[in-house]
Amino acid sequence: xxxxxxxxxxxxxxxxxxxxxxxxxxxxxxxxxxxxxxxxxxxxxxxxxxxxxxxxxxxxxxxxxxxxxxxxxxxxxxxxxxxxxxxxxxxxxxxxxxxxxxxxxxxxxxxxxxxxxxxxxxxxxxxxxxxxxxxxxxxxxxxxxxxxxxxxxxxxxxxxxxxxxxxxxxxxxxxxxxxxxxxxxxxxxxxxxxxxxxxxxxxxxxxxxxxxxxxxxxxxxxxxxxxxxxxxxxxxxxxxxxxxxxxxxxxxxxxxxxxxxxxxxxxxxxxxxxxxxxxxxxxxxxxxxxxxxxxxxxxxxxxxxxxxxxxxxxxxxxxxxxxxxxxxxxxxxxxxxxxxxxxxxxxxxxxxxxxxxxxxxxxxxxxxxxxxxxxxxxxxxxxxxxxxxxxxxxxxxxxxxxxxxxx
Length: 407
Prior knowledge:
With 407 residues, the chain is mainly α. Helices cover 79% and strands 0% of the residues. It has 14 helices and no strands. It is globular.
């Protein structure tokens, strides 16, 4: 979502058609697929490029940092320049970066190409959301945004399975060729079917200066900052799992890429189940209480994984059960924390969303390599990170984001 888009500003003469919405949803799914399809290939990438687990996990970091910057910068620039041309440019760069990943001769080139891939993918994602905001308002906007979020939840299920199928038959480099093909197809779709949705009279020249001022405003709200920390740490927990699960389940427990992808998809289903449960509990149970339950469940999963890693050699049963509980619990934490954070700054909805997205992906990029310090032999660093982030989240929830006294 852009940082200064006025609410209810539907473009006169335009409307959000089903075809246009489907195109936008697909654009928003490309960047997540670029990671989820790639995760099953981690051991193969390490072997092929002659490196260890840690540098391969750093390619997640460069991707996530790029995605964070692309989302933070892409929205204000498209507010100033319009949607269509920046979207076409970002997709073209995404094609080039994906081809560079496919041809990478070394892990260093892979890291750089993944940064550009993340930056262009994040840029495309934020403009795609902006197109929805330009063309809808009220209940239609809410439905459209829920659809975008729903597809984001499907990507972790479909992506690893598709990636494993490609890996099994053609090798990991073909995964990036597939991403390049998807991005190229969307260039054609945008060129033919997506109009300019932000006319010149509604653009502004504030750009990044306006973003800086509104960011300062939202960060002055203590409640927003508290829930922001909880949501960002939840993302850190998720990507501690993403960065290490392939090595734990494949290298330590001998699962094939296909079986690993089934396990990864099952955990993603657990995450979606937690999210749906959290939505059903709205109005029935205090949202802060639901977050607290999710954090205690996360802590329990972290303790189980730590015990398994320290004393039992990380057996498959503990790996599968711990990972499933960990991901299911995040469905109770992250979305609720994000919703409460946004409710703290209703006067700056776009900026609040941009800062949430930026910090989430920065946290993902920071945590992924730290969780990988155990390489393909130990899950102890991952378990310790989960426990530290969970403790920090509880502190932020109970102290920083404590409710104001009511009269």
